[in-house]
Hints:
Elements: H1 7-22, H2 24-30, E1 35-40, E2 43-49, H3 53-62, H4 65-77, E3 82-88, H5 106-109, H6 131-142, E4 151-155, H7 161-175, E5 181-185, H8 186-200, H9 207-216, E6 220-224, H10 233-248, E7 252-257, H11 269-277, E8 279-283, H12 288-301, H13 308-317, H14 322-338, H15 345-354, H16 365-375, H17 380-384, H18 390-406, H19 411-417, H20 423-439, H21 441-456
Parallel strand pairs: 2-3, 4-7, 4-8, 5-6, 6-7
Antiparallel strand pairs: 1-2
Amino acid sequence: MQNALDPTDLWKEVSLRLYKTTGLMTFETLIAPLKPVGFEDGKLILSVPKEHASKIINAWNTEQYALDFVQHANEITGDFIRPELRITDADDNFVPFTSDDQSVNAMPFTQDNDLNSDFTFDKFVKGAGNENALAVALAVAEAPGKVYNPFLIYGGVGLGKTHLMQSIGNEYATTHPKARIKYATAEDFLNDFTDSLREGNKADSNATAKFKKTYRSLDMLLIDDIQFWSGKEKVQEEFFNTFNALTKDGKQIVMTSDRYPTDIPDLLTRLTSRFEAGITQDIQKPDLPTRVAILRNLQERNDLNIPNEVLELIGEKIDTNVRSLEGAFHKFEAKVRYMNKPATIETAQSILSELNIDQGKKITVERIQETVANYFMQSVTDMQGSRRQADLVNARHIAIYLTRTMTNKSLPDIGRSFGGRDHSSISHAYNKVAEQVETEPKTKELIEDLANEIKNGK
Length: 458
């Protein structure tokens, strides 16, 4: 669109709108001296007379003028066009910035993207449970907005979803330093939205417009834990509009969730349909070779020499998620590095004992079913069958929930273990118990007790 625009005409329209909000004196001091030069890389270059440069540039850096410019230019052209101020001398030649000069282009658009620099592809360990998600992530980082958009990664807690998503952002930031990238949790997005509404109710506030520009002028948006929006319709509506604005402009969206979109209770159907229009990939718990590889990676990064049998013991016993595995490693590292303990099997066993997992029993679907059946005084056969007695259905649902959260089994696999039930039945059972865990303290306590018994035989 910029090729069809005349920079003088655009600046005339934008400056007229700025005049209406700044007043005559401010306009003549800070806006009228600027002259449009042309377009460059999505920016309108504005010349600043050298004699006024310090005052004007300082004002544009600290006030709302640059953000207001973007809003007005977007309303006029439909494009995201940024202003860049460049100092000119009396002969209209550009002159270098001095140490006291700053480019206003940097001020509103280089906000911290909140990416963790440690979350990179180099530090992400590939394994059987994540290789498909990793392949898609690499493709997205290479060509954001062009393939696999949106991209949603789902799976249990501590399996590396956030690491993989932020790796996409960090990789793209490396290859495209000027890209506008933002990472936020779903709760961050909700809080930003709520704050904008609260501030927007105050006189002369443009907080809502700022919120929309923050999220809708990005090249890449990374949103963590979208299941947090369950039942929160207003924020879902706002994200729906943000989603449409970004994807319409070919901008990349990456999200994570602890479950498949259609399994999130009270999520707008039109949102789930948008998510499913892209690509979804799950991350499963790492198998033993992957867990050991993760430990070896940590060992190398922390410059430690740990025998293979020690890494294999820790990897064998810590089979829940990557986060727990890393926690056990750093606990082991602290004993070796700061308490002068030897890097031996005995030290590893002491760590595992402190974590109450070295005596744990292997978790299988059969063990879960037996433990739950015994607690509810039901038989495993009945739990796998079709009877619909209330107590039996409750036991069946809890066993399904525990199987989903404590094993690597997929929904179809779980269905086969429970009498050949289909995906939707297993999903319904899991979601029902998951909701009860969130809202009913007694159910949460029961689940925790059963999980401990399953893991430890207690």
